[in-house]
## 1
Amino acid sequence: MAKIAWVNLPNGKHVEIALTYIYWVGRPLSVTVLETVGIEKTRKIETLSEEELDLIRTELKNHRIEWDLRREISQNIKRLEEINCYRGQRHKKRLPVRWQRTKTNSRTRKGKAVAIANKKK
């Protein structure tokens, strides 16, 4: 199992797909990384040598991925909460942040609906 950016990549996958297991690396970025390094995207992860994995690692260091990006996003959210702006208040209350309706939607953000006892009579 290859390890890139503290992520174990699955052996049975093509390199293009396996790189998408890294946070913020999608198909377009994985294709561009493989093109700059010069590795076929249809090769399997287990067939790559350690030198080729090192080339991929050095190319991915040019991009913000995984923990660096997660830390930056969480710091941005903390900053919004500390300055107490509208978006920060919505983050604190765990409500939708970008002006979505909340009367009927936003179940993902608000959690499971809770029935109110003795409401109908």
Note: Residues 84-110 form one domain.
## 2
Amino acid sequence: MITKEEAFRRLATSKFRSSFTLTEAEKAYVREKGTGTIRRHAADFVRQKLAPAVPVNDGKQTPMRGHPVFKGMHATACCCRGCLNKWYRVPVGVPLTEELQSRIVDFLMAWIERQINCD
């Protein structure tokens, strides 16, 4: 598995992935709700949208907007099983372990924290 820093370096080379940034309203939402709540949201989204062996509507299950975590999922290539496989070699067709789900949530939160702290 690659480190978060390696992943961020690789993602920065993608015009598509690096185009995602949080708006001021989304940053305010994160600050208002707190990182604990946002982390719980991220864990729920990962469990629902990525953890099943064959997620419903895989490749189209994560909206591009509507929640800071959704943007983070696209920015970090954690939006569908195909992207997880392409960018991180996560096997398709098998459920994600709780440990891997937790690592994805940690990575999403790291991206969100970078966005919040880039002011």
Note: Residues 4-116 form one domain.
